[in-house]
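User: Okay, second chain of the day. Same drill as before: sequence in, structure tokens out.
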Amino acid sequence: MLPHQKLFAEKSELYAKSRPTYPNTWYEYLYSLCEDHEAAWDVGCGTGQVAKELAKYFGIVLATDISSSQIEHAEQAKNVEYSVQSAENTNFEDNTFSLITVGTALHWFDIPAFWKEVNRTLKKNGILAVFGYSFFKINPEFDTFFQDRILEKLKPYWNPRVYALWEKYANVDFPYQAVEVPTFKMEIQWNLAQVFDFVNSWSATRACIKDSGDDFFRKAFEKACDLWGNPTQTKNIDMDFFAIVRRKNS
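Assistant: Same drill. Structure tokens below.
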């Protein structure tokens, strides 16, 4: 088992309940780009958040992840088929998909090898959509606290691959013709416990707690309560959503 596989296996149940959801308008946009809606492939599907939504728009969604634990906790839908497969080597037939999606996962792949698999399985004029989010914003005071008390503590524990996500894959060489992407606002309503559940699902948080215990995390939550007010009160969480979309023209 690769190191990042183990990290995701250890937190699959928490991951399933704490991931923020992408906006519905994003899926409607992807639907509008595709020439047909027979089959989509969601790569690095995790617990099926994206696959479940794509199922509303496509005849069948094939969803893959390298972590069997993630697949075990995946959200079921009648036209979603989950399988444990690597992104770079699947058993899918050539020219199968009109849409291939990767949500907050590309940085874990062998990207050149994955592009070859995309090219093999994506139909002519098919759409490749890579998207995600890095961090979030709540308000200036809370954001400063979060940077100083949590992100600084976690800095040594991030897998180096995550930096590509934070850079919004700016240094990744994407194939195919670029498609202009409109602005999508990804805003959710969370209380303080939900924010900390999300943070606790991060691979860096799990690695830090495993290394040095959860004392820093508990103290950070106590301080956050002072800044938040009533911890059961929900606040607007602004996620830093981004997307890269390409069309295969040959």
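The CA atoms of residues 134 and 186 lie 12 Å apart.

User: Thanks, on to the next one.
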